[in-house]
Amino acid sequence: MNQTLKRGDTIAVISPSATIKDNPEAMALYNRGVDILNDMGLKVQYGQYASGKEYYKSGTAAERISDIEEAYKDSKVKAIFCTQGGDNSNELLSDIDWNIIKQNPKKLFGVSDITVLLNAIYAHTGETSYHGIDVIWGLGKNATEYTVNHLKDFLFTNYINYRHHPDYLQWKVIKPGKATGVCLGGCLPSFCLLLGTDSDPIRAVSKPFIFIIESIGESFSRIESYIAQIFQQPNFKKYCNGIIIGHFFMCKEEILENNRNVSDIILEYGKKYNFPVIEVGELGHAVENMIFPIGGQLTIEANNSNVVIAADLTTHIK
């Protein structure tokens, strides 16, 4: 379900992964992100452990799960925003009550390590959640008018307006073609934590899918190993229908001449496939992000002169 919000609606802010406490920069960005949401006319409700701390996490697994489930159960809450990513969302998956999410579907937003949660929700419930914007980095750190308008359009009209950021390079066609499928993926290392588990979205999918990828701080040798792992999944071979490559922030080899383009790696592993591949700047860490519906239907159309991305949020895919 993709409920349209209106001014005066309540949204919840939660921290399923890293703590924001004791980090002055993160707290300042957190406050700015909340201010942007308030300026949209939204009422912000905080999870009990949104600014909590348990070592490097915002709380114990049970505490973070409680915030997730309470946000979904609360009928006043119309959408849920994660504060930021981290490293430890995957430890929540075995104990989340997925029926609560299935019975109370809502827009959930997050990036980075929240990739784990977004894709697991699809694997367990078939519901759609949204990669692209969180409170601290998506709004507090990086947001300009581009992000604010992009988010407002979606929240208040239920339409994702895919358009090129005026300050970024033009979208690039790596391999032309047209494809439609359920959108999966996000931060590549985080996504790979799901493979082979009960929360594996590639194993759960039974129809064509479009795969989005980005990453931060990885060597290209490690990136290639993740890509190889993805391509080795049986359902990837059956159902992958297209790939969108995003921004790979601070990804490099110590020896400069060993650096590679991610698009070259994708083409190398994708020789046997005819699906389209495009590259965009508005997907990843340290950039302004477009919203991608994880579990929702996405279409990409790419030729030598034009790239079109479109989401159909009226079609339910499982």
From TrEMBL:
Keywords: Carboxypeptidase, Hydrolase, Protease, Serine protease. One of its GO terms (molecular function) is carboxypeptidase activity. InterPro entries: Carboxypeptidase_A_C_sf, Class_I_gatase-like, LdcA_N, Peptidase_S66_N, Peptidase_S66C, S66_fam. The keyword Hydrolase applies. The active site is at 112 (nucleophile), 214 (charge relay system), 285 (charge relay system). It comes from the Bacteria. It holds the Pfam family Peptidase_S66C. Residues 11-132 form the LD-carboxypeptidase N-terminal domain. The keyword Nucleotide-binding does not apply. Belongs to the peptidase S66 family. This is LD-carboxypeptidase.
